[in-house]
Amino acid sequence: SAETIIAAKNKDKAEIAWEVSDLIYHIMVMLAQCDMTLEDIYEELAKRR
User: Fold this and answer.
1) Which residues contact 47 (CB under 8 A, 6 or more apart)?
2) What count of Cα atoms within 13 Å lies in the side-chain half-sphere of residue 30?
3) Burial track 2-26 (b if 16+ CB lie within 10 A, e otherwise)
4) Structure pTM?
5) What angle do CA 47, 48, 49 make, to 5 degrees?
6) How far is Cα 49 from Cα 40, in angstroms, rounded to an integer?
7) Residue 34 to residue 18: CA distance in whole angstroms
8) Largest Cα–Cα distance in the chain?
9) Range of the structural domain that residue 32 is part of
10) What is the C-alpha to C-alpha distance for residues 20 and 44, in angstroms, rounded to an integer?
11) Would you put residue 35 in left (φ > 0), alpha (ψ -120 to 50) or beta?
């Protein structure tokens, strides 16, 4: 996630897209390892509205 912050500071859209994609990929891998889905995350986000 630090790379994502650096990309945002650099305001480089291609770098931001690359780093955010990498972050999302790793989050999805972690969720799968924890037997969770993006739906679990969407439900949590809905509670925060």
Assistant:
1) none
2) 8
3) eebeebeeeeeeeebeebeeeeeee
4) 0.80
5) 95
6) 15
7) 25
8) 35
9) 2-47
10) 20
11) left
Number of domains forming the structure of the chain: 1
Question: pLDDT digit string (tens) for 1-48?
Answer: 899 999 999 999 999 999 999 999 999 999 999 999 999 999 999 999
**HEC states along 1-49?**
CHHHHHHHHHCCHHHHHHHHHHHHHHHHHHHHHCCCCHHHHHHHHHHCC
User: According to the model, what pLDDT value does residue 25 have?
Assistant: 98
Amino acid 19: pLDDT = 97
Distance CA 41, CA 21 (A): 17
